[in-house]
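Bumping my old thread because nobody answered last time. Still need a sequence for this structure:
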């Protein structure tokens, strides 16, 4: 445990998985927390179970797909707790889809609304104030799946590729004002999102280990980091493969489960 600081971190999707692990790591590092999730009651209960001091965290109930709701949560955080040093847009969903199925177009809509529009809406209330202060860090949680498209993952892979490009664009916009933008690409992390995968997950990492490495990357101001690094090597090698070989390698690979499977 380090000495408590006055620094504030704002984390969406904090009720489970990566977001919850990040929240706990930041708390143990002495930070104050602004935690956002749809399941606010569950988040309150979890914080109590962890023995968190009530003067060091606040919970905001919001759905990142609801632009009015999530941007209001950001403004309320600033009014109640102050402008955060770090904002982590972590909330995301992962669902397989089949583009031949009409109903899966709605799955794609949900993926984009959550993983992309929700990320931009999470950042929006803080950008102007951070630029004016000339400091702060905006963190987008992408995925190694955004580096190359995988069969059955069209919606998810393309949404995470968009996160990577969006954060790269935002980084250039914010740099002149002293605001950092960090893109984190998790590999396979043992969370509810990956628990139903029906294929091998190399270099599977526990959430607390991921959180420690992500925290270090964010503190260092690293613009782009794949965690674990081994998955970054794998992803880059896959990117270098010619299309014919890439397609052959993935032929017959089990697809991600569609909604309801």
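Sorry it took so long. Here it is:
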């Amino acid at each position: 445990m380090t000495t408590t600081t006055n620094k504030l971190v704002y984390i969406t999707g904090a009720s489970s998985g990566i977001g919850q692990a990040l929240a706990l790591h930041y708390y143990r590092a002495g930070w104050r927390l602004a935690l956002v999730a749809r399941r606010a009651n569950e988040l309150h209960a979890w914080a109590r179970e962890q023995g968190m001091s009530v003067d060091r965290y606040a919970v905001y109930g919001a759905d990142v797909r609801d632009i009015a709701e999530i941007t209001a949560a950001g403004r309320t955080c600033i009014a109640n707790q102050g402008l955060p040093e770090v904002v982590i847009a972590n909330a995301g969903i992962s669902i397989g889809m089949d583009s031949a199925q009409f109903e899966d177009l709605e799955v794609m809509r949900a993926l984009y609304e959550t993983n992309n529009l929700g990320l931009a809406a999470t950042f929006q209330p803080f950008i102007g104030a951070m630029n004016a202060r000339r400091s702060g860090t905006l963190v987008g949680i992408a995925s190694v799946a955004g580096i190359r498209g995988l069969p059955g993952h069209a919606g998810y892979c393309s949404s995470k590729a968009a996160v990577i490009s969006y954060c790269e664009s935002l980084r250039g916009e914010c740099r002149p004002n002293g605001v950092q933008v960090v893109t984190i690409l998790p590999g396979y992390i043992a969370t509810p999102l990956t628990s139903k995968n029906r294929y091998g997950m190399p270099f599977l990492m526990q959430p607390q280990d991921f959180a420690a490495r992500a925290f270090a990357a964010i503190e260092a101001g690293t613009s782009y980091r794949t965690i674990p690094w081994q998955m970054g090597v794998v992803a880059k090698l896959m990117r270098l493969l010619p299309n014919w070989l890439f397609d052959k390698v993935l032929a017959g690979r089990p697809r991600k489960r569609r909604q309801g499977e």
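Residues 8-250 form a domain with the Rossmann fold fold (CATH 3.40.50.720). Let me know if any region looks off to you.
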